[in-house]
Fold:
Amino acid sequence: MKASTERAAGRGRGPEDAERLARAALTRVLEPGDERAGQWLRAAGPVGLLRILGSEDGSAAETLPGMTAARREGHLLRAAAADPVRDLAEVAAAGGRFVCPGDLEWPSQLDDLGDARPVGLWVRGAADLRLWSLRSVAVVGARACTAYGAHMAASMGAGLAERGWVVVSGAAFGVDGAAHRGALAAGGATTAVLACGVDVVYPRGHAELIGRVAQQGLVVTELPPSSHPTRSRFVLRNRVIAALTRGTVVVEAEYRSGSLVTARRAQNLGRHVMGVPGPATSGLSAGVHELLRGEGVLVTDASEVVELVGDIGELAPVRRGPVLPRDQLGATAARVLESLPYHGLARPRDLARSAGTSSDEALALLYELHSLGFVEREGDGWRLTVTPPRNGDARRGGT
Structure:
């Protein structure tokens, strides 16, 4: 038993074997996110709580606040079937480990969940979960996303990875998968948080993707080996994604979407909440737009995400439109040019009056505008050129 436990133990010093075994067993007894059970765990400790829940004598269990006969029977059946030594050995054989509070690898930001904090985490992958989580961003969104959503998620994942950030998502179809693939394609880091055991492939169509994530990144779950996903586990899994990261980016989501659950969790935890806008006519963007009308921040690429969640100095490039040739003219030269009629000729004296300058300065600026390709001379008059200069053709002229 001890050898199996040591192989699957978290890195560095951590809880003693008895507590680690108890926590591993409790991941099979308790459902993720059960705050009432979290209160019991805080009061009795993992070893004490497992002893109470697995005891045939119901008197101790009856002292737990909120315990009912039905809950006690369910916990008793699960506790009887729990075999933490086997589970630890199975995850170790799959190249994984069990990380729990007290381990050096435990991400302390998960403690923000309070009594809803995971009992422990089953992890596959070589990287250090705590270190990776310190610089991570969640990218989540619709399963049935559009081509636009998949493109934005992939480019977001790749851009974040290129900037040294870990991309966290749920390995689902659609936006999740695209975000993971973007990070992997950039040779970067990504973490998949599952709603099933680390040895269970779900969705089955993502078997190759989850395998690549386990090799290049991390696969994380609260559930013990062989556990299968349920609807409630998907929803509760989202709180881990929200707490594990510095911020959550939502790419395409309807009004009723698990991605918005993740965003609300992140907001309640004081994390950054961001959304990628889409067409106003798309139902898949409706939830994101509702988020942006509230506390969400609009982002369009990885640099804008990093500017929000990163350190001082990690700024997105300044956005501006193209510089037109007229933008490079001096103020007086621009006024002279604007005074020219669209059709016909104008004399320097008339242009000087309209531009508010002298005749001599107006004439000098007309010759300068001529050299830049803005105007043409015809006798004593001046007209606009038929083909104005292209971008970059004109140098700054006049005053």
Remarks:
- The CA atoms of residues 62 and 329 lie 84 Å apart.
